[in-house]
Design goal:
Keywords: Membrane, Transmembrane, Transmembrane helix. Residues 9-392 form the DUF7802 domain. This is Hypp747 protein. This protein has 409 residues and is mainly α. It has one domain (3-393). Helix content is 56%, strand content 11%. The protein has 10 helices and 12 strands. A hairpin with a 2-residue loop joins strand 6 and strand 7.
Length: 409
C-alpha cells in the first residue's frame, strides 16, 4: 500500500476478513473472540448501571488517550499493530485494541472489588487481575505477529518469550492507577463508597479525570519510582523491577484480605450468583488462548502493514527517558542486524527485506523454537488466571449495588 493511501484513510480503514483469514487466520480468531467478550462486559455494565457503566466508559476513553500518546510521543512509539478488519488513526489503532481496554479494566476491577478491601487494596488486586488476564495475550500475540516491538528501544529491550518486562509492568501499574483514580476521585468528591453513584457532574468529572490522568499518574507514581529509578539509575534488571512490583502488590492484597470484612465471604452463608457475564468472559478468554497455543501455526503467517520503519542501519535517534537520562535507539529497523526472533522475511520475494526506507511492508512468522515449552508456559498462565478469577468471582463478595444505602452513625 502506498503512503498516499495511508494518508487518505487516516481516520478509519477497513480490511476484508477473508484476506485476514488467508494470510493471518489466528489474528481473525483474536478479533472474533474479543468482540463478544467486550459485548458481555458492556451488558454487565448496563445491567448493573451507575458506576459500573461509568467505569466501562472511563476505560474506553482511557484506552484512546493511552494509544494516542503511545503513537505520537517518539520516546514511547515502540510498537505496531497488525492490520485488523477495522483500523483507525493512520492504520495504527485496531478497533479490537480499543475494545480490549474496557474489556480488561472492567473485568479485573469488578472482580477485585468483590474482595471488599477498600479503594487502595482493590487497586492492587485489580492490577494483579489485569496482569494475569493480559499476560497470555502478550505471550501469544507477539509470537503470532498481532503486533511487533521496536528492535532497539532500551525501555523494552529485556524480554521473556519476546514479551518486554516493561509491558507486564505497564499492565500492573496502569490498571492500579486507573482503579485508584476512578474510585479515589469519586471518594474525594462525594464521600460515598466505591459504587455509590454521585451526581451527574461528579460522575462525569470522575470519568474525564480517570481517562486523562491514568497515563501520567501511572508513570509518575509507579513507573518512575518502581522502574526507571531502579532500572535506569541503579542498573537493576527489568525482571527484578517487575518481580519486585508483583511481590509488593501481592503483599498489599494479602495483608488487606487477611482482615477482610465478613461480606467478602458470602458463600459461607449460602449460594453465590457468580455464573454471570464476567465468568463467561474469563472462560472464553483463557480457553481461546489455550487453544491458540496448541493449534496456531506461526510459520504460515504473512503480515503486511505498518511496522517499525525499515531503513539504514547507521541512523540513530536521541531521546530522554522518564528520569531525564539521554538514551538512544535506531531510527530504523536494520534488515541485516535485528533481534526479533518471532519474525523474518522468508515469505517475501527473494526472502529478504525490500531495500530503502519503508513504513508499510510484509513480515513473516517463524516456527516455535520449543512448542512444548511454549504450550506449558501459556497453559500455566491460563490455569493461574482461571484459579485467580475463580477466587475473585466465585469465592468473594457480591457486586455492590450502585444505590446501596450504608448505615451512618
Amino acid at each position: 500500500m502506498a503512503e498516499k493511501e495511508l494518508t487518505e484513510s487516516w481516520f478509519i480503514a477497513f480490511r476484508s476478513p477473508l484476506d485476514i483469514y488467508e494470510k493471518h487466520a489466528n489474528f481473525l480468531v483474536a478479533e472474533l473472540a474479543v468482540y463478544p467478550m467486550v459485548v458481555l462486559t458492556f451488558i454487565h455494565a448496563m445491567r448493573k448501571g451507575g458506576r459500573y457503566r461509568n467505569m466501562w466508559i472511563a476505560a474506553l476513553f482511557h484506552g484512546l488517550v493511552s494509544e494516542m500518546i503511545s503513537y505520537w510521543v517518539p520516546e514511547i512509539d515502540n510498537f505496531w499493530h497488525a492490520q485488523s478488519s477495522i483500523m483507525m488513526l493512520g492504520r495504527r489503532l485496531p478497533l479490537y485494541i480499543m475494545s480490549i481496554y474496557p474489556l480488561v479494566h472492567y473485568v479485573s476491577t469488578v472482580a477485585a472489588s468483590r474482595l471488599k478491601l477498600g479503594v487502595f487494596a482493590t487497586a492492587y488486586a485489580a492490577g494483579l487481575a489485569d496482569c494475569v488476564f493480559y499476560h497470555v495475550y502478550d505471550i501469544v500475540g507477539i509470537k503470532l505477529l498481532w503486533w511487533t516491538w521496536h528492535d532497539t528501544d532500551p525501555n523494552i529491550y529485556e524480554r521473556q518469550f519476546w514479551v518486554p518486562f516493561a509491558s507486564t509492568l505497564f499492565r500492573l501499574t496502569f490498571s492500579a492507577a486507573f482503579t485508584l483514580l476512578f474510585f479515589g476521585t469519586h471518594k474525594l468528591m462525594t464521600g460515598k463508597t466505591m459504587y455509590q453513584t454521585g451526581s451527574f457532574f461528579q460522575e462525569a468529572t470522575a470519568i474525564v479525570l480517570t481517562s486523562l490522568l491514568t497515563f501520567p499518574a501511572a508513570v509518575a507514581t509507579h513507573f518512575i519510582p518502581l522502574y526507571h529509578s531502579l532500572h535506569d539509575a541503579l542498573g537493576a534488571s527489568s525482571e527484578v523491577c517487575v518481580l519486585a512490583v508483583i511481590y509488593l502488590y501481592i503483599l498489599i492484597v494479602w495483608v488487606s484480605d487477611r482482615n477482610g470484612p465478613e461480606e467478602a465471604r458470602p458463600r459461607k452463608k449460602g449460594k453465590h450468583p457468580w455464573k454471570d457475564e464476567l465468568t463467561l468472559v474469563v472462560l472464553i478468554h483463557f480457553l481461546t488462548f489455550a487453544g491458540l497455543a496448541v493449534f496456531a501455526k506461526p510459520e504460515s503467517i504473512v503480515s503486511t502493514g505498518v511496522h517499525e520503519p525499515l531503513g539504514p542501519c547507521n541512523e540513530t535517534m536521541q531521546m530522554y527517558n522518564a528520569i531525564g537520562q539521554a538514551v538512544s535507539k535506531r531510527q530504523y529497523l536494520c534488515p541485516t542486524d535485528y533481534d526479533e526472533g518471532y519474525m523474518d522475511f522468508h515469505c517475501v520475494p527473494g526472502g529478504k527485506a525490500p531495500p530503502g526506507v519503508h513504513h508499510w511492508y510484509t513480515i513473516c512468522g517463524t516456527p516455535y523454537e520449543n512448542h512444548a515449552e511454549y504450550i506449558t508456559v501459556v497453559w500455566g498462565f491460563c490455569l493461574l488466571g482461571l484459579a485467580y478469577y475463580y477466587n475473585l468471582l466465585a469465592c468473594s463478595g457480591l457486586d455492590e449495588a450502585p444505590n446501596k444505602k450504608h448505615k451512618t452513625n
